[in-house]
């Protein structure tokens, strides 16, 4: 593994700051106004209860690494976290078993296929591929600390609650609706098990995974959870260290390549941030060392990513200077100092 060679080299932080509080407030409000009237996309209905979501809901929440909070629209509407949970369960597993083990036992490459693809497992000789697609997420949940499914569920819930800075509750209606219909996830778990790639009982693991996806959050919660990854693993609101800085870094690099499924390349090209989306319409985008933006709007595109959310992220990534790849030419002064043009 490459990491072994460089593990004694100090990890220098990417630096940079958010604009002033008033400027961020103003731009978040502008983003909301700009896209509130857009109606493209379709609300997910493959989990029957999700079809009840209001397509007009639209919330934006940005939390800086100093805990500063900037809000617009429906930031306190509760919705189930769904696939966004995968990012945080990955971080908890990485914290528990380490970088090398996650790399070897799950993988970190994009499948190029839909999030719930069965073919991706077959094409890759039983590899779950990465923790952001359903196969990899189910395999990752099976690696959570705990001897029983109940203990693993307790570890998932308390870990995600520490990221959010409050005790998260399960939405029982969503959990039961998905458990009645999740034949595909059960098939994926059975297939992984047939390849010897699942560390626990397949049906019990799907049950824990489905509960994890049914945890109820708001856009405001998601922004705090994302900001914890932006802040080297420390929750900027509670001050609690949830995971190590190395794990926060590893989680963000995985989100950059796999967080937006088969659209991850396009997303990085357009928006330039590690991000994770969920089928209820949430997206978290993280700017390391600066903060995290959470968007919530249920209508989705064909890959399962919120349409208004993607537009608002594209706008704010540019306007707030969040894009990791954007730099401006420097000017060298006679005294040796540098400024940017
Ligand atoms: O396993 C599933 O299909 C859902 N619990 C989560 C899927 C999801 O959020 C995909 N996101 N775009």
Automatic annotation (TrEMBL):
Which Enzyme Commission number(s) are on file for it?
Answer: 3.5.1.2
Query: GO molecular-function annotation terms?
Result: glutaminase activity
Keyword Acetylation in annotation = yes
Query: What parts of the sequence cross the membrane?
Result: none
Which Gene3D superfamilies would you find in this protein's record?
DD-peptidase/beta-lactamase superfamily
Kindly list the positions annotated as binding substrate.
Answer: 83, 134, 178, 185, 209, 261, 279
Which BP terms in the Gene Ontology apply to this protein?
Answer: glutamate biosynthetic process; L-glutamine catabolic process
Supply the alphabetized keyword list. Acetylation, Hydrolase
The domain of life is Bacteria
Write down the chemical reaction(s) this protein catalyses: L-glutamine + H2O = L-glutamate + NH4(+)
Extract the InterPro entries matched here.
Answer: Beta-lactam/transpept-like, Glutaminase
Q: Name one Pfam family in it.
A: Glutaminase
The answer to whether keyword Protein biosynthesis applies is no
Question: Which PANTHER family does UniProt cross-reference here?
Answer: GLUTAMINASE, GLUTAMINASE 1
**HAMAP family associated with the record:** Glutaminase
Concerning its family, UniProt says:
Belongs to the glutaminase family.
Q: How does it assemble?
A: Homotetramer.
This protein is called what? Glutaminase
Q: Which organism is it from?
A: Arthrobacter alpinus
Q: What is the lineage of its organism?
A: Bacteria, Bacillati, Actinomycetota, Actinomycetes, Micrococcales
